[in-house]
Amino acid sequence: MNILVTLNTNYIKPLRVMLWSLFFNNPDQHFNIYLLHSSMTDEDIDGLYLYISQYGHKLFTTRVQAGDFDDAPLALHYSKEMYYRLLAYKFLSVDMDRILYLDPDILIINPIRELYDTQLVNHLYAAAYHNAISVKEINRFRLRAYEMEEYYNSGVLLMNLALQRKKIIEKDIYLYIDRYRNRLLLPDQDILNALYSKDIIRIDEFKYNYDTRYYHYTKLISNGIMDMEYVMHNSAILHFCGKKKPWKDHYSGVFYSLYKHYEMLASRNGFHSV
Amino acid sequence: MNILVTLNTNYIKPLRVMLWSLFFNNPDQHFNIYLLHSSMTDEDIDGLYLYISQYGHKLFTTRVQAGDFDDAPLALHYSKEMYYRLLAYKFLSVDMDRILYLDPDILIINPIRELYDTQLVNHLYAAAYHNAISVKEINRFRLRAYEMEEYYNSGVLLMNLALQRKKIIEKDIYLYIDRYRNRLLLPDQDILNALYSKDIIRIDEFKYNYDTRYYHYTKLISNGIMDMEYVMHNSAILHFCGKKKPWKDHYSGVFYSLYKHYEMLASRNGFHSV
To answer: What stretches of B65-199 adopt beta strand conformation (E)?
Structure first.
């Protein structure tokens, strides 16, 4: 499977935890990890390369150059890294048809092969729609994108690269940012939704992009069906959305002990098999 | 390492989870699991045998017979299984010097070799002292055992079998029960403390018998040092003490997600190694 990650140095530790959980819970899969970055040091990259190799997987890195987004508008509150996810197809081999983007604030706790094999047909992306009504309404207003049907979370994003090369036009993205730059809160996610929501095929959010903040709420509205037992057996991707992150002090979410245990496991060398 | 477990059919599932966590987090160790029981079916035993064998470890079972405790007094509120832990030496090979008893309501999250190799010298047991003052005072009064110095938890108990064969007299235990039968709440633990507390060497409770109920309290009294990061790296044995158990519905402790994840992993076949 091809996995895309885009990050800066601050996220290396969570990235390792995410990758460890991915490898551990998908033992019969081979992964090619593609890292798009601009600020990572050679030392960081070498460390990551060794880390990934020891589990039998491959790392490919691309340092995005200053000139790569020459036409991009400047906006104070976000960096060029925001474009990486949307324009990844520019930096990947033209032979590659499909890649799965994953945020680093994620734990993979079950197999994801089925997600990876999702039929994309004539869709640009597959993503999960975070189904909180308030979020939807707020975003609809904020973005003034009346054509927008859904609000997709861009943390887990299966990409139809072949189609993106044909349909995504860099200039459209820049024009959109220029017009709405004061209203964009989560730039790449907002753009994804405003420009491409009709081209996104929806995946099960509870299975592949479980928002860990809403465990109690989700359990409640499902009449208790989506309890911890259910999540552990049915969710493949836990997404630690929001500002509070489980690798920081004073976090106290429901999945804290699980995350910290994975963090410890990822810091051990290798898997512990018999 | 020799591991002792004593249980009835109701605890088979937690036992599997405990064993999975033991094997997974002690990958370079070989385990001989000794099971003392009286009520398990052949089917249960066969299933457990296969389960343990697939990880390369061994299971030995002993069905305790009705006549094995003929001199024991009858007491309404506890079964004969309460004696198994205290009189295990009777049922194990005379060649065996040492065994580690483990409760099934436990998760092993780090190596335990150091615990197993604890110098016992002239002590009968090694155990952790659960250091809540109120518990200590209550128990001291309840048991009328004024010579009792500490209140040890019997859920993790390293046994000096060679010395036990010489020093533990079955009759003493029966006499004690006969005298205090109305005051015993946790029979085997109470007897252990009342009769043998002077013969117990103390092990680090936070390392080898971490009471999961007191995470917040422990963090508080340690000025934040014993936070989740600390527990994950320093505790080897998490003990889900108390009536509320993480395999039951509506449990909500701090280590719930971790336990349920291990439960799921234990239900998969084999380890997922690369």
So the answer is: 98-102, 106-108, 125-129, 152-160
